[in-house]
Amino acid sequence: MSQTIENITAIDNELSKRDLALDPGGYFIIYLDSEAGLICAKHFTNIIDDRGLAVDPETGKPIPAKGKVARTATTIFTGRTAKELCVKIFEQTQPCPVTMLDHAAYLGREFVRAESALINSGDYIQD
């Protein structure tokens, strides 16, 4: 059975609705700096509370999943390719800021999507 872009998009959209366990190592906001030709990933620390919510380590308040949040990134990682960014985060940063394999897989997928948008001069919106 051959896949169409519509089938693949439908599968991915459905999977994006699933519940996720949050990484106690923190989270990333991914964006492009098209002018510089870079994929950027801001890393933010968090604590996962007993309800499974990510909370700000400084305030103890839950971090909203949507909308703007006024926090300072712990680190900003940049790379010209998805692979370069993965090497910087997963191989060259100690301790690694990602502590869960599913989070690492998610980031790899997102970095490839961002790289594709960068190459094709497209828009990138993090899933």
Detailed description of the structure:
This protein has 127 residues and is an alpha+beta fold. The protein has helices at residues 5-15, 82-91, 101-119; strands at residues 27-33, 38-44, 47-48, 54-55, 75-79. A 3-stranded antiparallel beta sheet has the order 1-2-5. A hairpin with a 5-residue loop joins strand 3 and strand 4 (54-55). Helix 2 runs antiparallel to helix 3 (101-119). It is globular. The chain starts with a helix and ends in an 8-residue tail after the last helix.
Task: Please render the helix and strand layout as text.
Elements: H1 5-15, E1 27-33, E2 38-44, E3 47-48, E4 54-55, E5 75-79, H2 82-91, H3 101-119
Antiparallel strand pairs: 1-2, 2-5, 3-4
Helix pairs in contact: 2-3
Task: Summarize this structure briefly.
Helix content is 31%, strand content 18%. The chain is of the alpha+beta class. The protein is globular and about 45 Å long.
